[in-house]
Amino acid sequence: MRLPNRRSAVRVLKRAAWWGGGIIGVILLIAGGAIYGLLHGSLPQLDGKTHLVGLSAPVTVTRDKHGVPTITAKSALDAVQVLGYLHAQDRFFQMDLLRRAPAGEVAALAGPAAVEHDRSRRLFRMRAVAEQVLRNLPDKQRALIEAYTLGVNQGLAALTVRPFEYLLLRQEPARWRPEDSILVIFAMYFDLQDETDAREQALAVMHAALPPALYRFLTPAGTAWDAPMKGKPLAPPPIPGPDIIDLSKQPPRKTAAVRIPPPAPVAGSNNWAVAGERTATGAALLASDMHLHLGVPPIWYRAQLVFPGSAPSHEVFDTTGVTLPGAPGIVAGSNGHVAWGFTVAYGDWADLVTVEPDPKDPDRYLTPEGYKPFEDHRETIKVNGAPDVTMNVRDTIWGPVIGKTPDGEPMAVHWAGAQPGATNLEIWNLQSAHDVDGALDIAERTGIPAQNFVVAGADGHIGWTIAGRIPKRIGSYDPSLPASWANGTNGWDGWIKPGDYPRIVDPDGGFVWTANNRTVGGRALKLLGNGGYALGARAQQIHADLESINGKATPADMLAIQLDDRARFLTRWHDLLLRLLTPEALAGHERRVAFRRYVASWGGRAATDSVGYRLVRAFHDYVRSEVLALLTAPCRKADPEFKLPALRQFEGSLWELVEQQPPNLLDPRYKSWNDYLLAAVDAVIGDLWQPDGGLEHRTWGQENTVAVRHPLSRAVPLLSPWLDMPVLELPGDDDMPRVQGTDFGASERMAVAPGDEVHGIFELPGGESGNPLSPFYGDQFMAWATGKPTPFLPGPEKYRMVFEPANAGSGNAL
Q1: Contacts of 691 (CB under 8 A, 6+ apart)
Q2: CB-based contacts of 348: which residues, under 8 Å, 6+ apart?
Q3: Rounded to the nearest 10 degrees, what angle do helices 590-600 and 611-631 cross at?
Q4: What CA dihedral angle connects 580, 584, 588 and 594, to 10 degrees?
């Protein structure tokens, strides 16, 4: 529930008083009014004038009806200082969590419940890394952060009441420091990469416990769903024969199989570009929807930045898009010349290193320079409301020791995100890019979590490359498994040089597209590696949608693809069920008859009212879980703590099993694969059947009910009506363009042609403000939820604020 003004707040409080009754209600009314008056002081000033220390010239901020700001400044430093001011006033608690999370400092704010989270982050000592990154930045980039920091602290100080979250937690917000903006970038590394290389740890157990042919069958590099921009689909490995594994010779299990959940949604996104020759305006079109966990406030903060460049040209840069609260600049957007967006590139950005202790001294280990002592760091975790917690981090020259290999040897992790050379602020320069080639050059120098970078030009050109540092591996080791780096021939030798990155410009067909899938093959794929990239089903559907556009493409066509919830991925499983449920299989099974009826009328979409879609999805997931549980049983025997990695490409191998039905890989409890698949149908029916309604109410919407919540409401559910977005049943799923889970999905939707931003589209799952009393708290949410197109550019001016220098003549120039 939003409280946009005092009148509506009083109405809410009066209702509370009426229900409370008598004197209790009056007390609540008075207390509530006092609380409202107090919290109102945490809202920012929207109109008028104020002074800021550090500005070189006045800065104007206009806001539209949604509170989206346009910042017009005389220099880049002035623009980012005011951006920091706005971020602090609208989103400081979010910024605070973003800096604390990678540093392992959340417990100091949230208490004992966050200690284990902080332990996992302290392994990498990221605050120390952030300080080193800051020291290494070029002067211009460090100046941006310092100006931004100045703005943040002045914006926070200008609030007459601290943000409401700190009132509830009974804490004071800590001042922003320059290295905190680096930590915010690190927060995205943790969100988008596998910092402990858990996937590789699990693969190591599988590699040790399973026959080689079965290991390859479970971990293929691709499937018929592949949709790379360069290269061909990769065929799955052959099914292992009975000489390798024969389940029929094993005794039937006496207990239920371990239920293996389907892979978690891929943090990553869709993006694509359409060349000008295929668009309505002749400018290339960009579409971008970044998939992340959804919360209140949303991860992104919309803004338009307008400022002149340096001498001699003094060209005015005008960029609109999304910013990340806590960091300066536009992350993704359009500057009139180029528009750009990102998806996570699931390359291999971490390696496990086998550590060889000195047989004579366990506190030493072998390095290329001989035996060296481990570095032990004592980390103290501050805990709100409880004693401090201390932990020891044992470090090597490659990274922290995180466990043991299947052979029992110590194991360290070498992760790109923890390397100081991996991070910089080069992304800022995209605001001044004039063409596709220039933008690609900037992307290859950018220090962010490695991303698929797609760019569209006003002149019609399009392109793709990787933004972020790519490790330069040397030696002959297999980077998907732990290996020793002690002899100096294996490991990383810095980073791939810009210019040596894989790059695609103006391909035949007029499209570039990515969806966290394998984008390339051959040498380029070897360079990037396989970090668990997504099944290509989503990317394949996007490409097919692009090919099917009638006439010249428009932003509306891009949004239609982003909202495409057709179930192409599950269609063959739907057809399998209809073939399986023959009249003979249905005879005497009323529940199977009902099941088939819903499957037959499923509609072919992940629609909220579809029972059939939910049943097909549940059947697929059940079969996948059962098969994987059987085939990976030796892994759990070898390691009781074993957790199966996502194995997203196993879909190709699974379908081969279902089609070919090899007797040696059939669960020995069944006489035939048909018997097994019918048992899977019955198991799904058993899970979902309701005594009073059968399957009638088991819609996909009932399963896919989306709750976008504030962090505090998760801890205190009574706050939910005031802090959370409306709970809705929404269409969409994982392996289709409209990715949607219960708390996961498009963190924004953008469709725009550079130079024609006025006709672009933008959607945000929330609002600009993190204050529930603000009219901008969740006002954009319903348009996002329903897929209603809203303008890319800020709308007409509704509010105007002028920031003037408090120390005229101080001179910020960049």
Answers
A1: none
A2: 471, 479, 480, 528, 529, 530, 531
A3: 110
A4: 40
Single out the residue of 396, 610, 568 nearest to residue 484, CA to CA. 396
The neighbouring-strand residues paired with 288 are 271, 750
Model confidence band, residue 19 (pLDDT cutoffs 50, 70, 90) = very low
Q: How far apart are CA 512 and CA 64, in angstroms?
A: 33
Cβ neighbours for 80, distance < 8 A, ≥ 6 positions apart: 144, 147, 148, 151, 328, 329
Phi, psi of 500 (to 5 degrees): -100, 0
Tens digits of residue pLDDT in 717-775:
999 999 999 999 999 999 999 999 999 999 999 999 999 999 999 999 999 999 999 99
Residue 460: closest CA among 340, 333, 282, 286: 282
Tell me which residue of 210, 123, 625 sits closest to 406, measured CA to CA: 210
Tell me the CB-side half-sphere exposure of residue 649, using CA atoms within 13 A: 25
pLDDT above 80 for 705: yes
Among candidate residues 443, 449, 464, 442, the one with its CA nearest the CA of residue 524:
464
Give the whole-angstrom CA distance, residue 809 versus residue 805: 8
pLDDT in tens, 772-807: 999 999 999 999 999 999 999 999 999 999 999 996
For residue 11, the model assigns a pLDDT of 33
Measured between alpha carbons, how far is 687 from 93 in angstroms, rounded to an integer? 41
Q: Cα-flanking dihedrals φ and ψ of residue 161, to 5°? A: -130, 135
CB 635 within 8 A of CB 210: yes
